[in-house]
Write a structure and sequence with these properties.
Length: 393
């Protein structure tokens, strides 16, 4: 905790519904927020697997008008947002429902920001740049990882700069968040693994953040314990509803932690890999996590001992240094067990991207400007960040 004047904030949706069947309450909840014709923001994958229809059927049954914008792409862009704004205005919508994982929620938040405040999404890069409240906004989650359905974070790719803009604004926090594990049973193992490791990264970075506090610590601890217990099971058998529900709570708790303690250099660096190469965020985080935390460990050694215990490691009788090392071992073992690629080059090949050492310098410069790095426990110089990227290749 702080040893100087410091005021801690705590941001979460006004209402959150977690559990089997929670999605059935979407129509009544969007009405309660004041919406009568929502724009449903999602992606083609969600539409293709039938989840969009599942939600619009509920709206139809309630006699509610709506429009669907399912053009969101992974790592949503400024173009995505502005196209969604045009649909919102043209179809005279008055509220938003985002359906999916982080990409859909981030796109929905971006649409709401521009609809309410005018201008372009680029105007809101940074912290609390908006001046007007979002339209009524309900977020329905279909993955267990990003926690974007409950956070004040919105990550949008600036296509001209090939940079992910970090928008942190309390006004983009959804009014209502819904996490129904039944919407997650069809999520494939690779996506389950990636989103689960994203949640772990949120919990770890929040726990070692320079603005961590007892509330965020409690959330991060329980999140890590649940991830250690349930992620492997959810990846092995997506129909294991206990594991799916466990991961719902784990990722939400991690969201509560980082939404208020913020993040660190794992995210600052992963954002550049997403913006530069369009690589999936969760897997980028998973690969970078042990490398960044090794660099951070001396700044928060006792906290790494705590995290080793949260992740199920027996550190009885070990020195503080040896016990802290067990945290990194546990992270790497979990990552291996759920099938995360060993390095960034291998990850790039999986998605047809050429990750090159020559690009490290520009990504390092951009990472050092990312707002997520401001609460990293160790002040990393350019050379440190570049060395981490190189080690993670």
């Amino acid at each position: 905790m702080a040893v100087q004047e410091m005021v801690y904030g705590f941001f979460i949706p006004s209402v959150t519904l977690i559990g089997i069947g929670a999605s059935k309450q979407i129509p009544e909840k969007i009405k309660a927020l004041g919406g009568s014709k929502p724009l449903v923001v999602t992606d083609k994958g969600i539409t293709g697997c039938g989840l969009t229809k599942q939600i619009t059927d509920l709206l139809d049954a309630a006699g509610m008008k709506y429009e669907v914008y399912d053009e969101t792409i992974p790592n949503p862009t400024d173009n995505n947002v502005h196209a969604g704004v045009e649909v919102y205005k043209k179809k005279k919508c008055d509220s938003l429902i985002s359906l999916g994982g982080g990409s859909s929620h981030d796109c929905g938040k971006g649409i709401g920001l521009v609809v309410a405040n005018g201008g372009k999404i680029h105007d809101f890069e940074g912290v609390d740049k908006s001046t007007k409240p979002m339209p009524p906004y309900l977020a329905v989650n279909t993955t267990a990882g990003t926690a974007s359905e409950m956070t004040r974070f919105c990550i949008i790719t600036d296509t001209s700069r090939k940079v992910k803009m970090a928008i942190v604004d309390w006004r983009v926090t959804p009014g209502i968040a819904i996490d129904d594990p039944m919407l997650m049973v069809g999520m494939p193992p690779a996506l389950t693994a990636a989103t689960g490791m994203d949640a772990l990264t949120h919990a770890v970075e929040a726990y070692v953040s320079t603005i961590a506090n007892p509330m965020t610590d409690a959330c991060a601890q329980k999140s890590m314990e649940l991830i250690a217990k349930y992620l492997r099971k959810a990846v092995a058998n997506g129909k294991d509803i206990e594991a799916r529900e466990g991961m719902c709570f784990a990722q939400y708790l991690a969201g509560m932690a980082f939404n208020n303690a913020s993040l660190g250099h794992v995210h600052a660096m992963a954002h550049q890999l997403g913006g530069f190469y369009d690589l999936p965020h969760g897997e980028c985080n998973a690969i970078l996590l042990p490398h960044v935390e090794r660099a951070n460990m001396n700044a928060k050694l006792e906290r790494f001992v705590d995290m080793a215990k949260f992740l199920g490691e027996n550190v009885e009788g070990m020195s503080v240094r040896a016990a802290a090392e067990k945290c990194l071992d546990a992270i790497k073992q979990l990552s291996t067990d759920v099938g995360i690629p060993a390095g960034l080059i291998e990850l790039g090949k999986r998605y047809g991207k050429n990750v090159k050492k020559e690009d490290i310098a520009i990504m390092t410069g951009n990472a050092q400007k990312d707002a997520c790095g401001f609460t990293n426990p160790r002040c990393l110089k350019d050379a440190d960040v570049a060395a981490i990227y190189e080690a993670a290749l």
